[in-house]
Amino acid sequence: MRYSIVPVTTEHWSAIRRIYLEGIATNNATFATEAPDWESWDASHRRDCRVVALQSIAGAAEAGEPIVLGWAALSPVSSRMVYAGVAEVSVYVAAAARGRGVGKALLRALIEESERNGIWTLQAGIFPENVASLKLHKSCGFRELGVRKKIGKMLDRWRDVLLLERRSEKTGV
């Protein structure tokens, strides 16, 4: 599968939202139960660290309509200056593109972008049942810090979240 990793634009929003809804439907990607509107999503994510994987297919390329295979973005963890270089990772891959390396390409691109923009620590909160996401993050240098036991309730069930972190070897050393 051929694709390119490019910065998010507003034109990608409908596909980003659709892919986010696919993640929500798994009940193992997020505590969210619905996707936000563009304005809310845009305001909650850093503008300098958000990427999409685009696949061009025959016919669609001429029409200028590449297919969004997945997205990754960073959210600030705090407004305090001491945490200016710490961000939380979100990576979502379309159901039809999972298991093909898209998530790894997105996460690697997001790591590079984060380091170019002065981020020294990335963190991720992942449900223990989301084995693919755990494997992906660990393959990109994240380490497990611990378990946040029963941190939130979802569908009348308390859920644990594993906290992972990746410290940059280039930024903030």
Description:
It contains five helices and seven strands. 28% of the residues lie in helices and 33% in strands. By secondary structure, the chain is of the alpha+beta class. A seven-stranded mixed beta sheet has the order 1-2-3-4-5-7-6.
Provide a concise account of the structure shown.
The protein is an alpha+beta fold and 173 residues long. It has a domain at 4-120: 3-Layer(aba) Sandwich (Aminopeptidase). It contains 5 helices and 7 strands; from the N terminus they run βααβαββαβαββ.
Number of helices: 5
Helix content: 25-40%
Global mean pLDDT: 94
- The CATH superfamily of the domain at 4-120 is known as Gcn5-related N-acetyltransferase (GNAT)
Strand order of the largest sheet: 1-2-3-4-5-7-6
Any idea of the CATH class of the domain at 4-120? Alpha Beta
Ranges where pLDDT stays below 50 over 5 or more residues in a row are: none
N→C terminal distance: 36 Å
Radius of gyration: 16 Å
SSE series: EHHEHEEHEHEE
Strand tally is 7
Shape: globular
| Beta-strand percent range | 25-35%
Structural class: alpha+beta
CATH topology of the domain at 4-120: Aminopeptidase
Topology of this protein?
Blueprint: E1 4-7, H1 13-26, H2 38-44, E2 50-55, H3 60-63, E3 67-76, E4 86-93, H4 102-116, E5 121-126, H5 131-139, E6 143-154, E7 157-167
Parallel strand pairs: 4-5
Antiparallel strand pairs: 1-2, 2-3, 3-4, 5-7, 6-7
Key descriptive features of the protein:
single chain, Aminopeptidase, seven-stranded mixed sheet, 5 helices, 33% strand
